[in-house]
Amino acid sequence: MAELRLTDSLKNVLGAATAKALDTGLGLRSVEDLLRHYPRRYAERGQLTDLAALEVDEHVTVMARVQKVDTRSYVDRRTGRRADRLEVVVTDGTGNLTLTFFKQSWRAKELREGRVGLFSGKVTVFNRSRQLTHPDYVLLPDTALPPEGVSALDDMPTADESVLRYAGALIPVYPATAQMASWKIASAVDIVLDQLPEQLEDPIPPATRIRYGLPDLPGALRAIHRPDSRDDVTAARTRLRWDEAFVLQTVLAQRRVAAAALPAVPRSATGEGLLEAFEARLPFTLTDGQLEVGRTIAGDLGRTHPMHRLLQGEVGSGKTVVALRAMLTVVDSGGQAVLLAPTEVLAQQHHRSITAMLGPLAERGLLGGSDQGTGVALLTGSASTARRRQAMLDIASGEAGIVIGTHALLEEKVQFFDLGLVVVDEQHRFGVEQRAALAAKARDDNRPHVLVMTATPIPRTVAMTVFGDLEVSTLTELPAGRSPIATHVVPVTEKPTYLAAAWERIQQHVAEGRQAYVVFPRIGGDGAEGEDTDVPTDPAATEKRRPPLAVLEWVDRLTDGPLTGLRVGVLHGRMSPADKDDAMRRFAAGPSSPDGIDVLLSTTVVEVGVDVPNATVMVVMDADRFGVSQLHQLRGRIGRGAHAGLCLLVTEMPPGTPARQRLDAVAATSDGFELSRIDLEQRREGDVLGASQSGSRSSLRMLAVLRDEDVIVASREEATSLVLRDPDLATVPALARAVAALLDEERADYLEKS
Ligand code: ADP
Ligand code: MG
Predict the structure, then answer these.
(1) 465 CB under 6 A from ligand 1?
(2) Which of 228, 485, 648, 656 lies 20 to 30 Å from 9, alpha-carbon distance?
(3) What is the CA radius of gyration of the chain?
């Protein structure tokens, strides 16, 4: 018989029927697919599953002992005849679970009191007790659990059922489906493992395996499916995590190496250009952090290969100034710089604040403008055709040295005169592909330098995976003179009067000349809900909850009630861009302006980058409907000026609930890194990785980006040095295949989404 290979189709190994069931339910097609379908956990022989921990609606496999068997008779509604229903109560010693079988009373012969088995099915609730209807099961040999004090492992006889043939003390429990119970998967795995050769081509080079004491691939695969001990499992898991981290880091290292080889025009400061004129105008001194990151960026820009840098820093840490200095450096050297913003509101705001910061420097050719100035163009999807045409002309002629805009900039017909730098604000909303679309707009074969800014602080390992092809700079300090933000939870269920107090605080602040935000999780009103409504909610809690509070349903209530007398504006994602811009402009204009706004009622459109230093209070309604990082971002909108900020998180959640604990965490710390960690720990891994890496569906099964820092760091080093030695991976063919498979998957994912 020909030797089994990982790429072999399961059809040939297991037969068509089993192969089909594995494919339909679980998407497993090749031998490798099956072997990389790892057990979710291991049932310990003699140790019953904790039944209290089962979640309703989940497909579970439990080890339990039959406690009670009853046959009940009932009338079948369809036939009108009497029939038997078998009710089997199984227990873990404390809690229990009911197994129900209709018209299968013969099963009472084998499901006898005291027997231990694995039972598999979907948990439902009936008559207030949890049950499995028609579960799949397999019984362990006919013996009761050993008496107390006797080691369960020594006393259990070997199973005679063939499915448990190889199961040692640890019985693998697989993610399963109704068609494919865990032990059926186990027996399929057994068949495959029996034919697996002793040696397999390994994606991890021997030197790396030796350096980190990793078992070889066949050894790890055998151990993960048929472990003799927990130690076996641990060693195998480490090795299999390495597989995932190493393949991903190899892809990223290849991208870095390839990107570093691309040509770029070096852009160096002239020493007496716009940059210096701008710095002379700055009303504040740059922080040491801003200066240092500035030097790093200037160094990058001076090279003949493109910069790929991520600039992260707390909300308000002054990233925009850093970016603007880089942009001016490029303009001084004769090139153009573009700032790409995720929303129209933000693009417009950037345009306003950059033009204001530049003053006469942004008015070249205009009366009163500066000779050395440059044009600042704004290009967004909603601008009138005439304005868009003018902007595109200025961009193509080079008249505009600085270009600010949204996705509209990515369109093919937008041509640059000489694009030298792309700044992407708030990267999490842009994909790698979009960065690439802009990168293609540089002159000749050159690539622009790229600076990505994000205000969501990213733990190191996430940066190494999601943004693994970027170098990372971090602004750690806030500019001096920043006022602290006090954050409090307003628990309206326990303290109903506190909400009124919150509105009074707004009245107070406005009386002192300040401004306020009230943020809602939903828009409300008629029509489809807009972009800013889908705030993450606690999935377990969504069922019985009322819909989130909606801004449109509160406008009258507030203006005729607790906010009477204040000038109130509304901002949400379903407004036309012109109305949005108008609301933002009036809010930014402030109380002294004739059409200024005191209080802005809004959805999360204010989340990113909005900068109104005079705003000092923020009330977040239904705050528990927002994620931790999102709340941190939101409150970054206040306390940006000379006056202390106050953020009130209004919630109905009772103390001690996870939602309430999240809010308490936000109130307790202003450390964005800490909060981002809390946030990420609560999400599923795919969400942590974000859209750009969600192709990791099958590529990141075992690796947890937050937990496995050591594996990620080490595999990054190893992958980088391998790629430098052997860029095409000629010496590690199995790795080359795995890399190709990952890229395929990414591509497929991208096509699916676009
Ligand atoms: P970020 O984009 O990092 O959230 P911004 O760049 O919008 O922060 O800066 C927030 C505010 O702080 C802006 O009003 C900006 O002008 C101001 N600012 C930036 N750097 C300094 C500094 N070194 N000293 C004082 N204020 C600063
Ligand atoms: Mg910003």
Answers:
(1) no
(2) 228
(3) 31
